[in-house]
Design brief:
The complex is a heterodimer of chains A (334) and B (159).
Chain A lengths: L1 E5 L3 H12 L1 H7 L4 E7 L2 E4 L6 H11 L9 E3 L1 H6 L4 E4 L11 H10 L3 E4 L2 H6 L1 H10 L4 E2 L11 H7 L5 E7 L2 H13 L3 H10 L8 H4 L2 H13 L10 E3 L7 H9 L2 E10 L3 E9 L10 E8 L4 E7 L3 H19 L2
Parallel strand pairs in A: 1-2, 1-5, 5-6, 6-7, 9-11
Antiparallel strand pairs in A: 2-3, 3-4, 8-10, 8-12, 10-11, 12-13
Helix pairs in contact in A: 1-2, 1-14, 9-10
Chain B lengths: L1 E9 L4 H11 L3 E7 L8 E9 L5 H11 L1 E5 L2 E2 L1 E10 L6 H9 L3 E8 L7 E10 L3 H15 L2 E5 L2
Antiparallel strand pairs in B: 1-3, 1-4, 2-3, 4-5, 6-8, 6-9, 7-8
The chains are: A alpha/beta (334), B alpha+beta (159).
The complex binds NADP nicotinamide-adenine-dinucleotide phosphate.
Chain lengths: 334, 159
């Protein structure tokens, strides 16, 4: 199976490492997973015989530009999408306002006869229907497990393993950064600013942490869940959002005294989509700590199902991307 | 909407009629009445009503019925529950008396725990509110209003 990776940052390179490390395992159990194209903001490279992944990572990390890689044709990213290949992996940054450039990349990929796997929330939370319809129209597979909850199985779990269940609601912690900050505030009785700074020093929070701490990232994820799992037709504008900036250590202390902890919770059901700090009983399965993510499904047959896992990180997120790639592989080799 | 009400009625002639009157006046439809004489509590008898009532008349119906009887359960749920909330902000300076009074029009603030780390800093408090289950949305709506009006920040319980 020939793969084109769009975006060669943390996740793009993480995936390249995983594909390299797992190449024997993949060949033995499935077949060859060959990366034939890679792009970053400097442009794209293509080699139909396959790109040397270790060399590509090295070139990117040393020079900052994938286009400095030798043995490959250089081209525009939209031309790269037109080259031969089976699957495009879209891992450019998530733009929650326009969805671009990912939206164009994904649509163009379908039009050019490619299946798509993405970790990108932007297009999914802004134009979900358009993407699904286009994929159908061109008879292509579209998978996006890594866009919500990183490594934690959630979309495929609901759609495949829990198939047949009606899902009434999904409640969870879908952002590791805020969970880390709130856990630190609770355990070390420090204020929000101090906990944020620490998270930034550790690379858990970004230099511009707004998307995480103001709840936008969680909002985008519950929109994806609402559309992909519950069959709703929502965009991020339908979400009522409150972030965690105003939480004080005293508030957490008082909540603890009453048997609660405070978590940034995303909550989606047929009536509403809400992201807000919420009091969670300490004994609740939703009370997971550090950067962990958690989601609780409420369903008609299975009743409550809870999953916990790592919501971010290059290798962890690549696990979800790889599982999507494998399921596409199985589908097209049928 | 169809609701199931578990009500305790005094065991006296005419008591049942007092309950039927507001139901009839609101144009609600009684589907069934189960009288459990053998489960009497003191001089009260539990009665289960299944009623069809228009959604916008539901609250009035409950209010009217409460004047003449004790409602134990609505749709099998305890009528009242406790809701814990946390509030952050200039809780005292934004007229805490008024905040509590307004919450008390919907539920009852039974307990308040307040921490003021420094006069310039925002304080934090927890409140325990006893409230009718069916009024929780109304309470949350009021909290949203107080948030906007007084610059407070409320954290609610997951229901
Ligand atoms: N990081 C995580 O743990 C995680 C977890 C789940 C999902 N995700 C999602 O995965 C995606 C990638 O995240 P990341 O952490 O890898 O981001 P990142 O490190 O910022 O990498 C983004 C990559 O996209 C490239 N890019 C930017 N604009 C482009 C354009 N117009 N055309 C082509 N390439 C472009 C960048 O190029 P340059 O290198 O030249 O700047 C970079 O290589 C995002 O959508 C993110 O939301 C991330």
């Amino acid at each position: 199976m020939d793969i084109i990776i769009l975006g060669f940052g943390v996740i793009g390179r993480g995936l390249a490492k995983v594909l390299y490390n797992k190449s024997d395992y993949l060949s033995k159990n499935y077949g060859k997973f060959n990366v034939v194209g890679i792009a970053d903001s400097s442009g794209g490279i293509y080699n139909k015989d396959g790109i040397d992944l270790l060399k590509a990572i090295e070139v990117k990390e040393k020079t900052g530009k994938i286009t400095n890689y030798k043995d490959a044709k250089k081209m525009d990213i939209l031309d790269l999408i037109k080259e031969d290949g089976d699957v495009v992996v879209e891992v450019t940054p998530s733009n929650l306002e326009t969805g671009e450039p990912a939206n164009t990349h994904i649509i163009e990929s379908f039009k050019n006869d490619k299946h798509v796997v993405t970790a990108n929330k932007g297009p999914l939370c802004l134009c979900f229907n358009e993407l699904i319809t286009t994929a159908k129209k061109y008879n292509k597979i579209f998978r996006f497990e890594a866009s919500v909850g990183g490594a934690m199985p959630i979309i495929n779990l609901a759609k495949e393993t829990l198939a047949g269940n009606e899902i009434y609601s999904i409640i969870g912690i879908l952002n590791g950064t805020t969970n880390y900050i709130l856990t630190k505030m609770e355990e070390e009785k420090i204020d929000f600013e101090t906990a944020l700074k620490e998270a930034q020093e550790l690379g858990i929070a970004e230099t511009n942490p707004s998307q995480d701490i103001d709840g936008l990232d969680t909002a985008a994820k519950i929109v994806i869940l609402a559309n992909a799992i519950m069959g709703l037709n929502k965009t991020i504008k339908d979400v009522k959002i409150k972030g965690i900036r105003r939480i004080t250590p005293e508030a957490i202390l008082l909540a603890n005294k009453r048997g609660y902890t405070i978590k940034l919770i995303g909550n989606v059901n047929r009536k509403k989509l809400i992201v807000e700090p919420t009091l969670i009983p300490k004994y609740s399965p939703l009370n997971v700590k550090g950067t962990l993510n958690v989601a609780m499904f409420e369903t008609d047959l299975a009743k409550e199902v809870v999953v916990v896992g790592r919501g971010a990180g290059p290798i962890e997120t690549s696990s979800a991307i790889l599982s999507d790639l494998i399921s596409i592989y199985k589908e097209i080799k049928k | 909407m169809r609701i199931v009400l578990d009500i305790e009625v005094r065991d006296k002639p005419g008591e049942l009629l007092k309950i039927l009157t507001p139901i009839a006046n609101l144009g609600a439809n009684i589907i069934s009445i189960i009288h459990s004489r053998e489960e009497r509590v003191g001089n009260r008898i539990p009665v289960r009503f299944v009623i069809d009532v228009e959604e916008d008349k539901f609250k009035t119906l409950i209010n009217e019925l409460e004047k003449v009887a004790i409602i134990k359960l609505i749709d099998g749920q305890k009528k009242k529950r406790y809701v814990d909330i946390v509030v952050i902000g200039h809780v005292v300076d934004t007229d805490i008396r008024d905040t509590i009074d307004r919450i008390n029009t919907i539920g009852l603030v039974e307990d308040l725990d307040l921490l003021m780390p420094h006069p310039d800093l925002e304080s934090s408090a927890t409140m325990k509110i006893l409230i009718d289950n069916y009024k929780i949305e109304e309470l949350f709506y009021l909290l949203d209003e107080l948030e906007k009006e007084k610059g407070l920040f409320f954290i609610k319980t997951l229901l």
